[in-house]
Automatic annotation (TrEMBL):
Protein name: Uncharacterized conserved protein YloU, alkaline shock protein (Asp23) family
PANTHER family: HYPOTHETICAL CYTOSOLIC PROTEIN-RELATED
InterPro entries: Asp23
Highest taxon listed in the record's lineage: Bacteria
Family recorded in the similarity comment: Belongs to the asp23 family.
Length: 114
């Protein structure tokens, strides 16, 4: 991920952005964990894409698209938890990196009863 300014270029690795996203997700009430799932891991490994801990980042014309695979806590309202998650991730990534966010898509891959 590159940011161009008057003095040059700033490069931010996908690993750093993934850590920011992951910390924001873990701080969101109702999110238990993030997981890419076995099928997605195999498909992305074969396809050369990178998913780390349920986080996929893609650069687009609109900005950075973020896709999250999450497990949520049982009895939580899924749409509300996901809306707060999207807001938290957008705020954190924009605040820390200055990157434009295109979209934040969330897939619920599990529900935890613990």
């Amino acid at each position: 991920m590159f940011i161009q300014n008057a003095m040059g270029t700033i490069s931010i690795s996908k690993q750093i952005i993934s850590k920011i996203v992951g910390k924001s997700a873990n701080a969101t009430r109702g999110i238990v964990c993030m997981s890419a799932g076995v099928a997605e891991n195999i498909a992305n490994w074969l396809g050369g894409n990178s998913i780390q801990n349920g986080i996929e980042l893609k650069e687009t014309d609109r900005g950075l698209d973020i896709h999250l695979n999450v497990t949520i806590q049982h009895r939580m309202k899924m749409p509300e938890v996901c809306a707060v998650l999207q807001s938290n991730v957008r705020e954190a990534v924009e605040k820390f990196t200055g990157l434009s966010i295109g979209s934040i898509n969330v897939t619920i891959v599990g529900v935890s009863v613990k």
